[in-house]
Amino acid sequence: MGVIxxxxxxxxxxxxxxxxxxxxxxxxxxxEEITVPRESNLVLAPALVQTPDWxxxxxxxxxxxxxxxxxxxxxxxxxxxxxxxxxxxxxxxRNYFEQLATTQDAYASSHFVIGLEGEIxxxxxxxxxAYCSNxxxxxxxxIECCHPDAEGxxxxxxxxxxVRLTAWLCETYxxxxxxxxxxxxxxxxxxxxxxxxxxxxxxxxxxxxxxxAMNAQ
Length: 217
Prior knowledge:
Blueprint: E1 5-12, E2 16-23, E3 34-36, E4 56-57, E5 77-82, H1 90-103, E6 112-114, E7 120-122, E8 140-145, H2 156-173, E9 181-183, H3 184-188, H4 194-198, H5 200-216
Parallel strand pairs: 1-3, 4-7, 5-8, 5-9, 6-8
Antiparallel strand pairs: 1-2, 6-7
Helix pairs in contact: 2-5
């Protein structure tokens, strides 16, 4: 998988804008402003929610570039992303987040990554923020999804796991999938997840599928 170096504008709250080199391995690591804390906050929020046993926990090593341990105190929504790199695996995308502690190329992470075989990898505990959804990092849970081609449509295994996970999160946090499940696009206008921005009918169908999965539980 090739690396394209871009410039990432990073906003330190109250400290202006700096630029760092970012390998464009994930869709949301291209040039855009991301709010990050000046220092890691090691105080965790209370009431950590444990994920079901069908989720593989592979937490990132605490570090300021992908897991700052900043508390996520309130969950007001779920943000859906696509990785932007056709054919890459869930584990490789999780490992990209992990290596940022060493490379220091970007500030990026996600609570979950869903792979092409429907595997769900949890990268960040649910009482900590992830660097995925810009100014909604502080009150949302993020899900990155792998996809087989540049169009960005999720295959059936990835899609089914996304519906299952999103339904569980909505149940857990008392969220309405028809209003509280959003795309990265709905936060910043970025074309992510690509297929579900270009095909809004497919996006609405996904949200209805999540609602149906909640009702079936």
